[in-house]
Amino acid sequence: MKRREQSQTEQLRQALAEREAQLQEAQARLAALEGSTSLQVGRALTAAAKRPGRSLVRLPRDLYRLWRRSGTTNHAERRRVEPVRSFDAERQEARLLTGLGGGGTDRLVAATVVGPEVQKAIDPYLSSVVLRPHDAQIVMDAVDVDLLLVSSSAAAPGSSWAHVGDPAAVDRTRALHWVLESAGSRGIPTVLLDDGTAPPALRRLGFDRVYKGDAGVPLHLFNPVAAELALGPEAVYVRTGPDTVVPDVLLELGVGVIDVDSPGLADALRAANVAVIPESTPGEAALRRRAWACGTRVVSHPAVPAPESEDLTVSVPRLRSLGPTPREVRTMLRQVFLEEATPVRLATLLEGLDFSEGTPGTELPLSGRGVAVLADPGSAEETDRLAEDLLSSRLRPAEVVVPDTAGRLPGLQRLRAEGVTVLTVHLSAPDTPEELEREAGTTGPGGLAPGQWAALAERATRPWAYLWTGTIGGHRLVDLVCAAECSGADAVGIPDTVEHGTEPDEGGERGFFDRNTGVRQYVFVTGIEPELARTDLLRKSWHPREWNRRGTRLLALGPDHGTGPDGDDEGSTHVDASTGAVG
Fold first, then answer.
1. Which of 225, 291, 397, 504 could make an SS bond with 522 (beta carbons 3.0 to 4.6 A apart)?
2. Given CA atoms 483, 488, 494, 497 in this order, what sign does their dihedral have?
3. How far is residue 389 CA from its own chain's centroid?
4. DSSP per residue over 211-252, as a string?
5. DSSP output for 348-362
6. Torsion angles phi and psi, residue 192, rounded to 5
7. CB 398: neighbour CB atoms within 10 A?
8. If you ran DSSP here, which 8-state letter would residue 374 be given?
């Protein structure tokens, strides 16, 4: 039997198993109905009505017997009933046996034939089943996946799928072609991420979608966190290929050199104030975005410099000595987070694909950014300010949780009208003097006790919770969620003044403050005043000053000094394409 026919047979077997489960469930319900006391009483009354003679005489005896039997249970008969199994239950069981449990609820399960860089980028957002040429057919038959993702970079020399699609690599091309046929027969969408040079035949294998571009910027790898600890020169030249020639002027200036595929690229970009990138080379745009995510300005190096362009002997020393400002770092990272990050790219890839019934939607890659705002507005004016604040944010929260006493205030009605889910919860206040004394001195942000924040968090359904205590501006929520995605922290906020004081240390060492600016930016600390925290953490009712001692990772995010009084950037927030500087 051919492989395609085997896949079709497997699909028919699963459909038959689902129909048998439905039939078994219907039979079990019918047996329960026929054995019910209510049905037997109805039959006895109907028989007595049809034959009033003897049936009326026997009716009291029959009803008495039914009453006696209604209190007994036939456990032997109950044990003979087989459990009802649906197709979804079998699917989840198969995923558990193959180590893919939970993939159907929080992450999509994807069979991948991708390059190593793409695999590192998508790991936090997809449950990957890596296919290799020698076991692709076996693995594809054994697991249940939602998506087949292939990248052109998988065909690069040196990888296990090297030259796939080339007539010279017939075995690998045949294996991938069979995987595509298997996915098509099972209704699994197939996507080609065209992120590099590959044989033209690879694009003609029959993918449902061919996307021209890369997997976006993996912010868990490229970010400005701990930039002050990164070691390296303040100016770096990124060599994009073995044939790339470093300009002599850069060598004379003492500029460091690093290869684009080096594992230390992220650290080199974090340590540098400026990165020089060859112009008009493959992957130039992706490399530029990665530098921006690390908070590094970019200078393009054209093969033939234009007459009006600034000479490298002037631009590189100038940018190396100045360094990016905190406002530039924040703005460059914000743009990448909203437009070019890996989860955003995956959501674009999945949009409009025809997934099989029961597969989670395309929102899963972005589900990790879901925020529930916890608030306790005390008046109509505060709810109006809350609504204005959240609706003007560049990252709109998914839901708002408030006490039930504020649920009908006009500001929350406005949020509902704009499509924001508003949830309410009853907050109980301490009544006795002992409870009041116990709560005294343990209030957290906004004057609420940790137990009250926990009560609001219990009602929330999103992975992150923002503790609203006042106006935040249009960018603060974006920056907090971006910082959490970059660092993997459990909570993000401003440094705790009790723990660290309010004045920067003297001495100018690059140990605690980001890039010697005197402002705490993206730094892990031992204590914060939390703004954004994992919802599960808030549900524990711990005081924020206990979080560090309980193993919680706390990230301090400094204020955005480049914002106006309303929280918006003063002037334009456009990032210059050639230098990465804010216009």
1. 225
2. negative
3. 24
4. EES---B-TTTSS-TTGGG--S-SEEEEE-STTPPPPHHHHH
5. HHHTT--PPTT---T
6. -110, 120
7. 19
8. E
